[in-house]
Structures are given as structure tokens and as C-alpha cells.
Design goal:
By secondary structure, this protein is α/β, with parallel strands linked by helices. Helix content is 29%, strand content 21%. The protein has 12 helices and 17 strands. The protein has helices spanning 82-91, 109-119, 140-151, 170-182, 194-206, 214-217, 221-238, 250-262, 274-278, 304-314, 354-363, 370-384, and strands at 8-16, 21-29, 32-37, 48-51, 56-59, 61-63, 94-101, 126-132, 155-159, 186-190, 242-244, 268-272, 320-321, 402-412, 431-441, 444-448, 451-452. Strands 1, 2, 3, 4, 5, 14, 15, 16 and 17 form a 9-stranded mixed sheet that branches. Helix 4 crosses helix 7. The protein starts with 7 loop residues before the first strand and ends in a 20-residue tail after the last strand. Bound molecules: N-(aminocarbonyl)-beta-alanine (URP) and zinc ion. The site of N-(aminocarbonyl)-beta-alanine (URP) has 8 residues, from loops.
Length: 472
């Protein structure tokens, strides 16, 4: 049944773009931004009018690195599925997510993508997929090409860690990167030296060092920095554009800075996550098994790395902030690693709180301007992952994915009140100031005043274009 969409007029808001803030009125029709004006013209009968006085108006957030319902072995699956995770995303002002296709051994990339896309249909926000290549064979280039043509998938994820399961060795990485470069696909790299991690893990376990505090010690900063340097070398050799996911250390930033200064590399883009900016490795000293809640890879780092990451954002060495949302309950999931930290599922929840944490601890603490906040969480991901200008910007013709941001609301984050389906949060007790008042997806109000509106339909799969350059 075809439903007509009520036109919306949003008056008196402060529109935040990646470069400026200005007051204007927005008219939304048929799911898109129709006009932006400083005068209110007569509106069609039936138009719903929203007064946004006192609110910022942002383009809906884009979280380009999430793992909903991800199987990680031993029957454990990340605890948010596409429905619960996307609900949490919307409540936090994120209207587009990009998850991953991870093929089974022997499964074609086409079949794996078809299957994952089907699972993702229950997403309440818009969604797309990156394609992980976990094994090399000669059909990979052709399958990447088909996935780009059939599904609009323009980014490929590779893992230098987890070599026993989904990780690749350098010879396979070089072949995938060469194919990706030919097809104009962006390679996203998980940069940790997998052999060094396995060596250290085995050594700790042999020595009876089994508690979660050994997780960060098995993945020290150099393990990331070395892999970042090697990934950039391979990007250079293959002339493949590279996006380094979840950068967590000063050491990695220094490598990126050195490579950029040399000037002869293909685009090298970097992402970090809120947890590396806001938490540190003291969390692994929590008593009992509580430290397991903070087991993610790369791990949290000593305090000084946080300053380096904020500075790297200020100096444009980092282009995006995504969450790597991959939640696991403590009960029955994290606790399977109670006697062996290497068995604790890696990952934490974060999708709901990305914008509010970065507003509270980034904008309000002068690490970010309002335009930088929008750029790094939304506009840059839209450009890098081929969604711009449909997404990531407020301009006529763009999708009406909008957040009316109330800068005055104050709250404390808690696992007792969050929408994420997870019995723990690494941000328990964090005070935030500023939250979405209203969230609009494709011209429909989906969330307002702390509550979801009656179901307004699911999100849409987004076929993506090739990456666009952003400033580095
Ligand atoms: O610990 C993490 N990051 N889990 C999610 C999978 C990955 O490595 O990105
Ligand atoms: Zn991840």
C-alpha cells in the first residue's frame, strides 16, 4: 500500500554544516529536503510544522563501522541484532549504519552478501555493507566486481589480526589490494600484527596469566603501529586507497603522519572510536571479572594516547569517528572467558552514545567545533563511503535524515536505561549534556522527546558510489 508522506516545515533551527552554522527554515517533501530559506513562505495545507527554536539541526549521523549479530565462534553472536542495534542508533541520532559481510570459508562473496543483506532487512535505520575478504582465491577479483555492480559495495575490509580465522597474510592482502585498486574500491584495514598477538597470548596463557588485564598486554601499541606502517607500505605498492579502522595509539598516528608527509601515498584515511578518546587502560584494573567488559581490539591504551588522538583529530590526521559497535553481554558471553582472557569475545557497545559523547566531551570541552563534530561523524563518512550528497549534508535534494539536537538535556549513561541490547556499558555513569530531541529518517519522524513513534517502516539498503576524497 502506498502511503503519502506528510510534508514537514522545521522552523527557526540552527543548521550545522561541516563548515558553518546558520539559522534557517527547512521544508521537507517526499522524504527529501526541498528548500532551505530564511523566510517562511506559505506552506501547503497538511504540512506539519515543528518549531526548532533552541535546537541545532544536524544531518543524521553515519556510523560506518558496526557489527550487528556477528557470530564470533563457540555459538556466541554479538548481542544487538539489526533491529535492536538500529533502534539504539536512531535514539542516538545515527540514521545510517554500515555493517560487514563476513563470508564463511568456501562461501562466495555474492552468496555471503545476499545472506547478510537479508538479515539486515530488519534494520530500522538506513544501512549498507562493507565486504570482508577472509580468504584469497583467484575468483576474488571477479566476485568483488560483481558485488560492486550488484549491491553497490565500494569498500573491502581486511584483517591483519585474527589470522587463525578471518585474518589474511601479507601475500593475500597485497593481491586483494591490487584488485581493489583496479576496481576503485577502498580497503579498510584492521591493523594489528596477528602473529605478535598470538605469540604474546600463548606466552601469557602458558605462564598462567589468564585474567582480562593481560588482554591489553598481549596487544601493545607497537603491534598496532607496525601493522599500520606495513598496511601503508602495501597500499603504496598496490596504489590502493586505505582507510585504517579504529586507530588507538600515538604510535600509529605518528606512522600516518610520516607517510602523509612523504606525499607519494594513495589516500590514507584514519578512523578512531569514542572509547579510545574517553577511556584508558586503567579500566583493566577493575576488580574481579569486571575488566572483561572493556575487552575490545585494539584495547584501551595508557592515558597519554587519548591526548594524541584528540590532537590528531584537530590536525586532520583522523577523518572519521565510528563506534566499532560490537556488544556482548557479560552473562553467558564475556563470561565464557572467565578462565582465559583469549576466549572473551572482543567488542563493546557504543552506537547509541557516539554523538552525545562527542558533543559532551568533544564540543563542550573544545576539542571539536560544532562543524568539525558534524564533519567527522557524518559528512566525511558519507563522502568516504560513497553516500554523499544523498546523505551527510543538509542541502536541497538530500535525504531528509535529520537530528534536532537539544543542547540542554543532561543525563547519565547506564545499561539500565540504554536501548542497546547489552547488559553492560563501558560508559556507565558518564554524564552527558546534549541529546537528540527529534530524529527524522527519510522525512518521517521516528523518535521524539525520548520515545519512539509507532513503527513508521524499516530503513533502506543503500547501494553506494565509489569513495570521494576528503581533506587529509
Ligand atoms: O573488538 C572488536 N573490535 N570487535 C569487533 C571486531 C573487530 O575487530 O573489529
Ligand atoms: Zn570492527
Amino acid at each position: 500500500m502506498k502511503t503519502t508522506m506528510t510534508p514537514l516545515l522545521i522552523k527557526n533551527g540552527q543548521i550545522v554544516t561541516p563548515s558553518t552554522i546558520y539559522k534557517a527554515h527547512l521544508l521537507i517533501e517526499a522524504g527529501q529536503i526541498k528548500t532551505i530559506s530564511t523566510d517562511i513562505e506559505p506552506v501547503k495545507p497538511g504540512t506539519k510544522v515543528i518549531d526548532a527554536t533552541g535546537f541545532y539541526i544536524l544531518p543524521g549521523g553515519i556510523d560506518a563501522h558496526v557489527h550487528m549479530e556477528l557470530p564470533v565462534g563457540n555459538g556466541i553472536i554479538s548481542s544487538d541484532d539489526f533491529e535492536t542495534g538500529s533502534r539504539a542508533a536512531l535514539a542516538g541520532g545515527t540514521t545510517t549504519i554500515i555493517d560487514f559481510v563476513t563470508p564463511q570459508p568456501g562461501q562466495s562473496l555474492i552468496d555471503a552478501t545476499t545472506e547478510r543483506k537479508k538479515n539486515a532487512e530488519k534494520s530500522l535505520c538506513d544501512y549498507s555493507l562493507h565486504l570482508s575478504v577472509t580468504h584469497w582465491h583467484d575468483q576474488i577479483p571477479q566476485q568483488l566486481k560483481l558485488c560492486a555492480e550488484k549491491f553497490g559495495i565500494s569498500s573491502v575490509k581486511l584483517y591483519m589480526a585474527y589470522k587463525q580465522t578471518i585474518g589474511l597474510d601479507d601475500s593475500a592482502i597485497l593481491k586483494v589490494m591490487a584488485a581493489a585498486a583496479r576496481l576503485h574500491l577502498l580497503v579498510m584495514m584492521h591493523c594489528e600484527n596477528g602473529d605478535a598477538v598470538t605469540f604474546l597470548q600463548d606466552q601469557f596463557i602458558r605462564e598462567g596469566k589468564r585474567s582480562p588485564m593481560y588482554h591489553p598486554l598481549s596487544r601493545p601499541p607497537l603491534v598496532e603501529a607496525e601493522a599500520v606502517k606495513r598496511a601503508m607500505m602495501m597500499a603504496h605498492i598496490t596504489q590502493c586507497p586505505l582507510y585504517i579502522v579504529h586507530v588507538s595509539t600515538q604510535d600509529a598516528i605518528e606512522e600516518i603522519q610520516r607517510a602523509r608527509a612523504l606525499g607519494h601515498f594513495p589516500p590514507i584515511l584514519a578512523e578512531t572510536c569514542p572509547h579510545y578518546l574517553l577511556l584508558d587502560d586503567s579500566c583493566y584494573q577493575r576488580p574481579g571479572f569486571q575488566a572483561a567488559a572493556f575487552v575490545m581490539s585494539p584495547p584501551l591504551r595508557p592515558r597519554h594516547h587519548k591526548n594524541s588522538l584528540w590532537n590528531a583529530i584537530g590536525n586532520n590526521l583522523i577523518q572519521t569517528i565510528a563506534t566499532d559497535h560490537c556488544p556482548f553481554h557479560m552473562k553467558n558471553q564475556k563470561e565464557t572467558g572467565r578462565d582465559d582472557f583469549t576466549r572473551i569475545p572482543n567488542g563493546v557497545a557504543g552506537i547509541e552514545h557516539r554523538l552525545e559523547l562527542l558533543y559532551s566531551y568533544g564540543v563542550l570541552e573544545n576539542h571539536l567545533t560544532l562543524p568539525n563534530w558534524v564533519n567527522i561523524t557524518t559528512t566525511n563518512p558519507a563522502k568516504i563511503f560513497g553516500l554523499y550528497p544523498r546523505k551527510g549534508i543538509i542541502q536541497p535534494g538530500s535525504d531528509a535524515d535529520l537530528v534536532l539536537w537539544n543542547p540542554e538535556i543532561q543525563e547519565f549513561i547506564s545499561a539500565n536505561t540504554h536501548y542497546q541490547r547489552c547488559d553492560t556499558t563501558i560508559y556507565e555513569g558518564f554524564k552527558i549534556k546534549g541529546k537528540p530531541h527529534t530524529v527524522i529518517l527519510g522525512g518521517r519522524i521516528v523518535f521524539q522527546n525520548g520515545a519512539f513513534l509507532p513503527h513508521t517502516g524499516n530503513g533502506h539498503f543503500l547501494s553506494r558510489e565509489h569513495y570521494q576524497t576528503v581533506s587529509t
